[in-house]
Structure formats: structure tokens, C-alpha cells
Write a structure and sequence with these properties.
Length: about 180
């Protein structure tokens, strides 16, 4: 296995250790000071009085909600870091492309990456690769048909996603979003 996969294992272990540990989350509605991008937790709090804020004081006092975002969390920060690491790994793979055998995992990743960026071929194929899914969606007549999408096809996971997030119009509420 190449260096790429060693980095992946290390990254995976890091993510697992962070996911198992403390998770903190700061919503835009909880901001308490004049700087709308941070929240401040008092140093005078005692562990027995406010465990959450004492344990997470450093993160809550330093974490910023980025412009255009409604929240920040350790998960979001980890995701951003991992995205940057993946970009670096792809750059390394592309730089050393000639080193990998044709059927190696590294070469498969390189080919997938290049195929994703090949807009000419994607435009040439048009909707043909997803035509079956589109036909299934067009044939929906009832709630039962929608429920069957979850069990009988890949459309549910690939095209229709539901999630509850902070409402973009009112950060004090949550809203159901689909994409």
C-alpha cells in the first residue's frame, strides 16, 4: 500500500478519536457578545456548576462562526481539515501518477478523480447515466411509491436527502431541508 493509504489510516484514526471524544456545537443564536462570530464563556464558572461550559470553555471562546454559516462545531472543523488533507493527497497522487501500476488502488483513485473533472465526457453522456432514476421519480404517484424508493432503488440515497438543520432565516429554530 502506498503513502496515500497510510495517511488515510492516520486520518481515519484521528477522526474516530475525535468523534468518540467531546463534541461541542455553537449556534448563531447562542452568541452572547458584541462580536457576532464568537461566544464568550466566563472563567469564573466552576465544573460542578456548569460542566459543559467549563469543559468546552477554550473552544467556545476561540471558535468562530464563519461568514455565510449559521453554526460551527468540532465536526465542521474536522471536516474542513480532512477536506484539505484529501486535496493534498490527490495532488500527491497526481504528481506521482506514473509510479502506480494500472490496476492499483492509487491509479483507480486518480482515474475516478479525472473522470469526475472530465466535463466534456460528462456533457456528451448527458442524462443517460441517470435516466432510469429520473423515470422512477417521474412515475411516483403516491407516498407508498416514495417509501419504495428507499428499499427498491438507489434513488433515495443518491438523489433525495433529508436533514434537520438550523433554519437559515431564524437561527433560534430548526428546519427540515431536502436536497
Amino acid at each position: 500500500m502506498g503513502n496515500f493509504f497510510k495517511k488515510g489510516v492516520i486520518s481515519g484514526a484521528l477522526v474516530c478519536s475525535l468523534l468518540i471524544g467531546q463534541v461541542t456545537y455553537a449556534k448563531a443564536a447562542e452568541v452572547t457578545n458584541t462580536n457576532a462570530n464568537t461566544t464568550t464563556v466566563s472563567n469564573s464558572l466552576r465544573l460542578q456548576d456548569d460542566f459543559y461550559n467549563v469543559i468546552n470553555r477554550e473552544w467556545l471562546n476561540t471558535a468562530k462562526i464563519e461568514t455565510g454559516q449559521v453554526s460551527n462545531s468540532t465536526f465542521m472543523e474536522i471536516n474542513k481539515t480532512l477536506t484539505e488533507q484529501k486535496k493534498e493527497m490527490i495532488k500527491d497522487l497526481l504528481a506521482n501518477e506514473k509510479m502506480y501500476s494500472e490496476n492499483s488502488d492509487e491509479k483507480k483513485i486518480i482515474n475516478l478523480y479525472k473522470n469526475t473533472l472530465n466535463m466534456e465526457a460528462r456533457n456528451k453522456n448527458g442524462i443517460e447515466p441517470i435516466k432510469k432514476m429520473i423515470n422512477e421519480l417521474n412515475n411516483i404517484k403516491s407516498i407508498k411509491d416514495i417509501a419504495n424508493l428507499n428499499t427498491e432503488s438507489k434513488i433515495w440515497n443518491d438523489l433525495i436527502q433529508f436533514g434537520c438543520q438550523v433554519d437559515l432565516k431564524d437561527a433560534t429554530k430548526n428546519a427540515l431541508y431536502t436536497k
